[in-house]
Amino acid sequence: MERSCGLLTCRKEPVPLKSVSVTLSINDFVAGVSATLNYENEEKVPLEAFFVFSMDEDSAVYSLEALVDGKTIVAELQEKMKAHSSYEYALSQGQKAYLLEANNYSRDVFSCNVGNLQPGAKVALTLKYVQELNLEEDGAQRHMFPAILNPRYQLSDRSGDSCLDMKTPIGPLEDLPYTLSLVATISSQHSIERYLGQDKTSAQVSLAEGHKFDRDVELLIYYGEVHSPSVPVEMGMPEMKPAPSAMVGFYPDISEVEISSSCGKFVFLMDRSGSMNSPMSNQARSQLQIDAAKETLTLLMKSLPLGFFGKSVEYEGGLMNLFVFTDGEVNDTFTLISEVKLNSIHSTERWLLLCFSFGIEEGASTSLIKGIAQESWGYPEFIPGKDRMQTKALRSLKSALQSAVEGICLSWDLPAGLSANRHAPEQTVIFRGQKLIIYSQLTCNAPASGKVCLKYTLQGKSFEEEMRFSLQPKANPSFTIHRLAAKSLIQNKDLGSHQTSESDKEDVLKVSILSGVLSSFTAFVAINKELNQPVQGPLAQRNISMSTLFSSLCVKAYSDLFAFKGPSQRKRVNSTGESVVQLISLQKANGSWDLDENLPKVLDTNLGDIQAANPAKHEHAVVWATVLAVLCLHASSRDVKCEWELLEKKAVAWLHDHAGSPISILVKAANTFLKLCVNPAVLDF
């Protein structure tokens, strides 16, 4: 099977990439990455190669080095136009040059130019960046390496300055001409769960030798006491004010409570573009993205609690929960993010927008999915081919229906002469399963300790947590916290050259240069001036889409695409097919099912037999149908109860209101008719 592996020339010739070596250092909730790419020009002419690769938009890229003929050349971060001029001039002088920049229309796409690579020459490029770890539903901290970069749409009115104008080459996975080596070191103030060593605060893992980088893989880390707040402090950077920076980590343990219909309005927006007709994964008979989206939308609508429906009413403002499903294949993500930011609070119409965004399939733009969620205090989710869209969507719906942490206020208790300056706008809402990280810079060093107080409200109650920390931090040569803090500042103002105001551009440029963190307005350029031989004629150009590099690390291969497991004794309610989806689609808005000709088709029986099996005979037909449907759900799709438990609760609530005295008899008769053994207690009867 072919896919966008990217490691080919525009003539589908093998690229000069020989191997990739990655070192990952994880400390609590952040990671430092150093990735080295080894190239060799096997052609007989000098080359200028172009690489396009994806990286999570939260990554703070701060270093590019080139090792050529035993000499290391360190790139300098310059204003982008200046960096381009330096690069072009170096090539004209016959010098070796390297240019690394972010795309003008998206924060998660980068391009790297390798210029004047002589025949037989070998070069090693090393890229360094730091990044926050993503949080999974079960509390795992995740670092993930996407193996592809989906080709984004090319808009006809663009001027051609996007690094995505090239076509992504296609090649067989088995022919990947390079390998990946990886070593990951993990350290934490928390204990590392699911680790068998004696020292549970550190661990080291690595990939097997000769690993082929042919799929998305991931590293999952489980910490003990992960809900305890933390305040690591880091020594200051010489380039910036030499004051320490602090990173406040807050991951509240929010228990589930009874849902209600008083949590605002819900709007579901589905991407219907042509790319949504692609399969969810590269496995045989994989479901199409658009079909999975349709099923997910049906499930979401059925799972809304009672009180949302009744009759059509005029929209009067308030809280709007917007669910956006897309494969993220757009060219100009900054324009969409700007629209969300502009409309997140509408004072005239008196409504507040919370956007829950879903990136479908590998390669979905992290810049788009995270950007629109962050600008609206919502929550982003990514749905790779191995995951079920329905599970991720229901997780966010449950969060939106639950009480959230609100009124977050951070105050500092510091020695005299010290103060703390926050690096990013205040986040006012945290949903269940979310993590909040706040960066602040302290005004100066002091041989003392400090205290930070976090206040918030949850379910109408006020809470307060205090954390003490030392103001004598250890030195960190990577300046991880400082660079992530700078990235936070840059993300807040950097919306690309076409959307950023002049004043914000000046601020972004200043922070980017001082911190060494790449932005839309800067680029890394490295030049080896020892080779001063004028170029004879134009350099041969090779376009290589480096999608598989520089995102996150991975030591766990993706499992097979999940399939429902139904009871073997009941083939007709086996949920591996479409029966369960059809059953859910038949549920009415109030939670019940009608006893008509549609239900027998799903149960693979006939209407007469269903009616005859009803112990109440012709009475309570709707109640009888609802009991049958609920028992089928419990028996045939227990492994994905998280997907249908909300609509099941609604059905049970309806039964309590309408069933009357014979409900226990109906449940027993339904078990007999369906040849099941569902315990009536699971239905609260």
TrEMBL record:
* Taxonomy, superkingdom: Eukaryota
Q: InterPro entries in the record, alphabetically?
A: VIT, vWFA_dom_sf
Pfam family for this entry, one: VIT
Please list the residue ranges annotated as the VIT domain: 1-131
Provide the protein name: von Willebrand factor A domain containing 5A
State the organism of origin.
Answer: Nannospalax galili
